Amino acid sequence: MPKCTQRGCLQPEFDSASNGPTACQFHPGKPVFHEGLKGWSCCSKRVVDFDDFMTLPGCTRGYHSEAQAETVQFGDTTTPVDDADLQRGGGGGGAAAAAAPSTDNNNNNNSYPQQPTTTAEEEQDPVDAIITSGTPCRHRGCNYQFESDAQSRDYPSSPAAHCHYHPGAPIFHEGSKGWSCCKRRVLEFDEFIKIAGCREGPHRFTAETTTASPDPTSTNNGQGEGEGTPVDCRRDWYQTPTQVIVSIFAKNVVRERSSIKFNTQSIDIHLVLPRDQVYRTTLLLAFPIHPDQSTFEFLSTKVELTLQKTNGISWGSLEPSANLTSWTTFGQGDSPLNVANGNRLN
């Protein structure tokens, strides 16, 4: 079957007979990585995690296409890159990455030291897992979609069950792009997407092991005191003139047993995680929000909170801080800091 080359299309192969004007959902723009955020120039959605960026739904409908995509070169005015942010994904870089590398793999094998990867056995799909046809492999660098147990899970007997993927993290540094687990470096984003996986093993179609669903007859629903092992989760945030977006990095949250409650100047967060772990906290906010207009979304690698501001103030801090003594208003007029912040900084 032909393969679609449209950026952001999550259907790598398509049937020419059924290819219509709305068959492909893709991004006509260019990738934009800037100040910790990743997205596409054609739409406003921004994420922090690279895996979430790779699965952002396309913003445009059209025909699937086999045509060679336009070359994407990072570093121009439309795709600004923050090297420090892109380096967060893993090792590499430094003096060895200072020079722009050749896209020829044979000439580049010795230009970068290979980043060591874990030798521990990676978690595999449960034997009794029920996987539907068309489910994509979760391994980075693999575009395979599940066909049947005999074809896709009978490793190593079935050729289709062999997965070639990248166990490492993406590294974008000074124009070069690659993976921390192997030496190949390229200059163009589309070539980066095509870098063949450096490790072989069985495909992975299901998420990491999660705790069992809650007992529907239970009145506690898993939210009582003492539930699970307390853990801490990393947070990140950014803002627009009207909203503050907070990311809590927690993988595979058990949604049915988790809760988020917005208050005027705080958020009650209770997340139930795999392996009987719990993240519970009350996040105090530096400025008030509209609780009824604020929302949250559970993603595969994080929980994203969208807080609706009550005014046009640019938050200098997410949480209350005695060091917060100035502010900007995005051109929407003056707002005295001590009033906007509930007089808690005095």
From TrEMBL:
Annotated Polar residues bias: 71-80, 207-222
Signal peptide annotation: none
Pfam families named in the record: CHORD, CS
Family matches, as PROSITE patterns: CHORD (PS51401), CS (PS51203)
A molecular-function term among this protein's GO annotations: metal ion binding
Region of interest (Disordered), ranges: 71-125, 205-229
CDD domains found in the cross-reference section: p23_CS_SGT1_like
Record bears the keyword Transcription: no
Annotated Low complexity bias: 96-110
Keyword tags: Metal-binding, Repeat, Zinc
Protein name: HSP20-like chaperone
The species this protein was found in: Dimargaris cristalligena
